[in-house]
Design goal:
Layout: H1 3-24, H2 31-46, H3 58-63, E1 73-76, E2 82-86, E3 91-96, H4 97-130, E4 132-134, H5 137-144, H6 148-155, E5 160-164, E6 171-173, E7 179-183, H7 189-205, H8 207-220, H9 225-246, H10 252-267, E8 276-278, H11 286-295, H12 303-318, E9 329-333, E10 336-340, E11 344-347, E12 356-360, E13 366-370, E14 381-385, E15 391-393, H13 399-404, E16 409-419, E17 425-435, E18 441-452
Parallel strand pairs: 1-11, 1-18, 5-7
Antiparallel strand pairs: 2-3, 3-9, 4-5, 6-7, 6-8, 9-10, 10-11, 12-13, 14-15, 14-16, 16-17, 17-18
Length: 457
C-alpha cells in the first residue's frame, strides 16, 4: 500500500478511536482529552512515520513477524505506463501515469480552493474594517487587565478589537494578526467579559490555524470520510474548550448568562468560514453545548480514559507499518534496469534473459535464479515431482475413477499457465501433491507468480 493511503489509514484509525471512546465514555472523556486525541490524529494524517519501516536495521526487521513479506513474485515487463522521477545515487522513482495525473488534478483543485478562500478572507476583512471602528482603550482596558498576555498583543499591534454594525455575533478572524469583531449593540459589562474570555481563548489556542490544518488534511485525504469527520469534530471541541476556559471558576448564575448569550448569538448567526471562529459556533450542536456549559463543575473527565484513547489510537496507527510498501525505484545497469519494490522485482530482460529472475532470499538479500521454461502445449497445468524432477501433464480424469481410487500421493510443485490475451502470460506455482494411480492433483500453498510480457511457452 502506498504512503498516502497508509497515512490516511493511520489518521482514520485515530478518528474512529475518538468516535468509539467518545461514545463509550461520553461523560468521562474530557474536552481536553478529546482535543488532544484530535490533534494527535492530525499528526497521524500528516506525518509519514511509516517511512521509518525502510530505515530500520535488517536484523530488527527479521525479528518482527510479518513486518516484511519477502515474496517470490517475479515480473518481466517494460517501463511503459510509468513516469520516472530522478533521485539520488542514480536511482529513479517510478509512478504509474494515472497516479501522476490524479495527483496533478488534486493539486490543481486544492490550489484553486485555497486561492478562493484567501480572496474571500481578504475581501471580508477589508469590507468589515471599512465599516467598523476600533475599540478605545477606555472601552476594553478593564477587560484586558484580566488577560495580560492578550493585553501585550494589543499593545504590540498584533491584535485589534472592533465594533461593527455589519456583524450579528462576536467572532475572531485571522491567524498572524487576528481581529475580534463585536456587534454594535448594548452590552452589559458582565456579558462583554464573558465574550472576551471566549474569543481570547480562541486566540491563545490558535484555533483558526488548526482549522486550516484540518482543511489541509481534507484536501490531501479527500477520499477518506474520516478527514471530514475530523474537521467537524475539531470545530466542536474548539468551542467546548473555549467555553471551559471562559467559564473557569464561574458560578452557575454566570454560566446561565453565558449560555443565554450563545443561544442569542446562534439565533442571529451570519458570518462563517475557514478563517473565522464565531462565538455561537454551529447551530446544530447548540443544545449539547449549552448542556455541557451548565454541567461544568459537576462532571470531570478522567485521565485514564484519555490515556486509553491515545494508546488505542497509536496502536491502531502503528499497525499501518505492516501494510506500507515503498514506491518502486529503478537502478540502471548498462542497458538493463530493475525495480526494487519490497518483495517484488520488476525488470526489463535484456541483461538477465527470459529464464532468469531476481528474487529475495530468506534473509532479504537479492539473488538471481534460473527458471526452466516448461512446455504447456499439451496441458495448461504441469506437475513436477520433488524427488525425481519428472514433469507430468495434468489431465482431467473421470470423477468415478478418482472417487474409487485408493490414492497414493507424491509431493511436488504444480504450475498453472494462463495467457493474458495480449501475447503475455502468467504462471502460478503451487506446492501440492499428485496421486500416482489416478493422477488427481491437490494444491496446498501458493508459492509465487511469474508474469511474462511475451509468452515463451
Amino acid at each position: 500500500m502506498n504512503l498516502i493511503c497508509t497515512m490516511s489509514l493511520a489518521g482514520g484509525a485515530g478518528v474512529l478511536t475518538y468516535c468509539l471512546i467518545g461514545r463509550l465514555f461520553r461523560g468521562k472523556f474530557s474536552v481536553q482529552g478529546r482535543e488532544l486525541l484530535l490533534k494527535l490524529t492530525m499528526l497521524l494524517f500528516l506525518c509519514p512515520f511509516q517511512m521509518i519501516k525502510h530505515h530500520l536495521p535488517k536484523a530488527l526487521m527479521r525479528r518482527i513477524p510479518g513486518f516484511f513479506k519477502y515474496s517470490e513474485n517475479r515480473f518481466y515487463l517494460d517501463l511503459s505506463g510509468y513516469v520516472t522521477v530522478p533521485g539520488k545515487a542514480g536511482r529513479t522513482t517510478l509512478f504509474r501515469s494515472w497516479e501522476v495525473w490524479l495527483l496533478v488534478l488534486g493539486i490543481a483543485i486544492a490550489v484553486v480552493f485555497v486561492i478562493r478562500q484567501v480572496m474571500q478572507y481578504l475581501h471580508l476583512r477589508s469590507a468589515l474594517l471599512g465599516c467598523s471602528r476600533e475599540a478605545s482603550r477606555e472601552e476594553i482596558g478593564r477587560f484586558l487587565a484580566k488577560h495580560p498576555d492578550i493585553e501585550r498583543r494589543v499593545q504590540a499591534g498584533k491584535l485589534k478589537i472592533f465594533w461593527s454594525a455589519a456583524v450579528k455575533e462576536p467572532f475572531t478572524m485571522g491567524i498572524r494578526r487576528p481581529v475580534v469583531f463585536l456587534p454594535q449593540s448594548e452590552w452589559r459589562p458582565e456579558e462583554l467579559e464573558l465574550i472576551y474570555g471566549h474569543e481570547f481563548a480562541h486566540i491563545r489556542n490558535r484555533d483558526v490555524l488548526v482549522k486550516c490544518i484540518c482543511l489541509l488534511i481534507v484536501l490531501v485525504h479527500w477520499f477518506n470520510p474520516m478527514a471530514y469527520v475530523l474537521l467537524v469534530e475539531f470545530g466542536k471541541m474548539a468551542e467546548y474548550r473555549c467555553d471551559e476556559e471562559a467559564m473557569r471558576r464561574r458560578e452557575e448564575k454566570e454560566r446561565a448568562v453565558y449560555a443565554e448569550l450563545i443561544v442569542r448569538a446562534a439565533a442571529e448567526k451570519s458570518e462563517s468560514g475557514l478563517w473565522i471562529t464565531g462565538f455561537a459556533g454551529s447551530k446544530k450542536g447548540i443544545y449539547r453545548r449549552v448542556e455541557v456549559i451548565m454541567d461544568m463543575g459537576k462532571k470531570k473527565g478522567k485521565k485514564p480514559v484519555t490515556v486509553l484513547a491515545v494508546a488505542l489510537a497509536v496502536l491502531c496507527s502503528v499497525s499501518t507499518l505492516y501494510v506500507y510498501k515503498a514506491q518502486a525505484q529503478v537502478q540502471v545497469y548498462g542497458e538493463s534496469e530493475f525495480i526494487r519494490n519490497e518483495g517484488e522485482i520488476i525488470f526489463t530482460p535484456e541483461e538477465y534473459g527470459q529464464n532468469e529472475s531476481l528474487v529475495w532470499d530468506e534473509t532479504g538479500e537479492l539473488v538471481i535464479i534460473e527458471e526452466e521454461i516448461l512446455d504447456f502445449s499439451e496441458s495448461k497445468e504441469l506437475f513436477i515431482a520433488d524427488e525425481t524432477g519428472e514433469i507430468d501433464s495434468v489431465q482431467e480424469e473421470s470423477a468415478i475413477e478418482r472417487v474409487t481410487c485408493s490414492h497414493t500421493y507424491v509431493s511436488g510443485r504444480v504450475q498453472r499457465h494462463i495467457a493474458d490475451g495480449k501475447g503475455g502470460c502468467k504462471v502460478s506455482t503451487y506446492q501440492g501433491r499428485q496421486c500416482t494411480k489416478c493422477g488427481l492433483v491437490e494444491l496446498t500453498t501458493l508459492l509465487y507468480h511469474t508474469t511474462y510480457v511475451v509468452c515463451p511457452h
